[in-house]
Amino acid sequence: MNITVTLIAQMLAFGLLIWFVNKVMWGPLSGIMEARQKRIADGLAAAEKGKHEQELAEKRATELLKEAKEQAQEIVAQGQKRASEIVEEAKDTARAEGERIIAAANAELEREVNQAKEALRAQVAAIAVAGAEKILKREIDAKAHEDLLNDLAAQI
Amino acid sequence: MTWHLDTIFFSIALGVLMLVVGGRVARNATDGVPGGFQNFVESILEFVQTQVKDSFPGHNPLIAPLALTIFVWVWLMNFMDLIPIDLLPLIGSWLGLPYLKVVPTTDINTPLAMALVVFGLTLFYNIKVKGLGGYLKMFLFHPFGKFAMPANIVMTTIEEIAKPLSLGLRLFGNMFAGELVFLLIALLGGAAALGAGLLIWFPLQVVLDLAWLLFHILVITLQAFIFMVLTIVYLGMAHTTEH
User: Fold this and answer.
1) CB-side exposure of B228: number of CA atoms within 13 Å?
2) ipTM, 2 dp
């Protein structure tokens, strides 16, 4: 076990080996490992981002859905309101029409009643005159008693 | 001036093996889902990287490759210890080699060479980070303060020199002792090569060899790990200005 020139040779060999290992093995491999680490980190970050975006999209979808529902409800309410308005209007129109018809009928009735009354009055006057003629057995001057007769007819 | 060609050959061959395999993995590596062997290599890299991150302050791109080299190379050289102890020398003897040492780390030159390179690096970074004045000041005022300068110089010098020495000798001692135990176990059967004693000694040799083999797997990994961690720590100490 003596120290010889082998020591120098081994030192040289060791030094060269370190240099070669760095160049051939460590350098490329650690570069690749770093690249992989970066890729994995990137992938994780992308996944995280995607998840976040999905959450956002879900939230937006819910919001849109809610809005659409609200709008639909509003439209339905408006429609209902409009429908009841139309019904009310129709009712009003019908009522007015009915009243108008009733009024017309009433007017017609009154006119006819009046007509009948006039006819009756005339007839009553004629009857009364005829009766009086018969009672008095003489000609009565219609003209002289017109006022009296009209009075009588109005009282009937 | 003797060249331990066996040591040099095996250590360089293992270094080349490491480079070829590692280089092939690095060339075919993908930054997508790694396959089987790439996974294995990457886990070693990550292990080393964690050690460096844990015990090295600041940033130096040299430290991690250095630590990786030490860990893998020392482990591979130690692993030669697990090959049946007489196998490679036997093959060598067929090729006309009278003597063959297959475990480079049981040759004091290899661990010491590595320790000296680490020592040189600590020296370099000590001076680079603290400045020559700062580094020398450490010898003067550490560990007892400015009133015990002579003692400080002696203490710090011993401390600094003890670092590479202990680093190299620890690995060498462990590997050499392990190899020696393997040799002794191998001698058990040989001692009773012929005769009835073989019935007792041969099974004993097999059992002991297996036990020591299993234990030694731990030892070689632990020694490689310790060498790496201490290197990182020493270089980390060189990088801290406040001691």
Assistant:
1) 30
2) 0.81
